[in-house]
Amino acid sequence: MSKYTKTLKRLKRLAPKVPDYTCPDIDFIVDKIENNDKGFTRFRKKLLVKKLERLRVQNEQLRESGEYWYKKCKDYLIDLLDWASASDSKKIARFLCWLSLNIMV
Question: Is there a contact between 52 and 90 (Cβ–Cβ < 8 Å)?
Fold first, then answer.
């Protein structure tokens, strides 16, 4: 395993977890609101608020995850640029190609 692969795996392991897919919760709430003819019971209101609060937490987790990855990539790019010299341009090009192929793994 190359050092690049090890580094990427370590970054992924340390990254914040991505929350569950939120569309079913959104669909559930929209359906309950659209198909409600009588108004909401206290229980139903509490259920909808609970689902919305869960979505709020998940959205915050997504924001934190995005900020984490942005900072990590920025830090590594700065390190790469500091390390680079004219004689290392082929190494940098190889690394960037490798990174572009493996970043979504």
Answer: no
Q: What is the pLDDT of residues 17-46, one digit of tens each?
A: 777 766 777 888 888 887 887 787 888 888
- How many other CB atoms are there within 10 angstroms of residue 41's CB atom? 9
Instruction: Note the pTM of the prediction, 2 decimals.
Output: 0.54
Distance of CA 92 to the CA centre of its chain: 26
- The pLDDT > 90 percentage for the chain reads 0
Helices (H), 1-105: 3-14, 23-34, 42-83, 89-102
Q: Where are the domains of the chain?
A: 3-102
